[in-house]
Design goal:
By secondary structure, this protein is mainly β. Helices cover 6% and strands 40% of the residues. The protein folds into two domains: 147 residues, Double Stranded RNA Binding Domain (2-Layer Sandwich), CATH 3.30.160.810; 49 residues, Ribosomal protein L3, domain 3.
Length: 209
């Protein structure tokens, strides 16, 4: 991994690429900072802080004040490549959106919206059964197992349960525009999570930049 940036999701809009309207997600990264560089198991890593906060305890604040930056609410560590541009930055340096370029492909990770306990129609897009003329099936799951052979339910059976509220990564999204003076990035397509949700943007591992 060469580049990484923490940001928050602002919302969606569209821009025009020639005559074509392209839906884009607007993300903002106003206060992302490089807190520390170190080596983990022989590999270089960086600790990045995001979102200024005054509600940390003294040990937590000390990690930031030791490098002369305001405390951040979120602190995450990432393993990077030996030739990563982040290793050239000094500790305490802000990481701006201009580390990415227009046309570059990125992987965006975030936490999806939590939808609670859901049935199979919403969770797995089942079609359901007839709901008229006494069908008595409606939105229910239906049969889940087999009879005498093999007399069990197979693993990973699609069943009702918790839907959403998990980490998801969308790969190979194209950066349509970088507004460095406002710390904004416009990314083609949609990304996981609700507005104001935390996003982690990395250079794409697959595909060509």
């Amino acid at each position: 991994m060469l580049k990484v940036l923490m940001a928050k999701k602002v919302g969606m809009t569209r821009i025009y690429d020639g005559d074509e309207a392209v839906p884009v997600t607007v993300v903002e990264s106003p206060d992302c900072v490089l807190v520390r560089k170190r080596t983990v198991n022989g590999r270089p890593s960086v600790q990045i802080g995001f979102e200024i906060s005054d509600k940390l305890n003294k040990p937590q604040e000390g990690q930031f004040t030791s490098v002369g930056v305001k405390p951040r609410r979120i602190l995450k560590e990432f393993i990077v490549s030996d030739d990563s541009a982040l290793l050239e930055l000094d500790e305490g340096t802000e990481i701006n959106t201009d580390i990415f370029e227009e046309g570059e492909l990125v992987d965006v990770s975030g936490q999806t919206k939590g939808r609670g306990f859901q049935g199979v129609m919403k969770r797995w897009n089942f079609s359901g059964g007839p709901s008229s003329h006494g069908g008595r099936f409606g939105r229910r799951t239906g049969s889940i197992g087999n009879a005498a052979d093999p007399s069990r339910v197979y693993p990973n059976k699609k069943m009702p349960g918790q839907y959403g509220n998990d980490n998801q990564t969308v790969e190979n999204l194209k950066i349509m525009k970088v507004v460095a003076e406002e710390n904004l990035i416009l990314i083609s397509g949609s990304v996981p999570g609700a507005e104001d949700g935390l996003l982690i943007i990395r250079n794409a591992r697959k595909g060509e930049n």
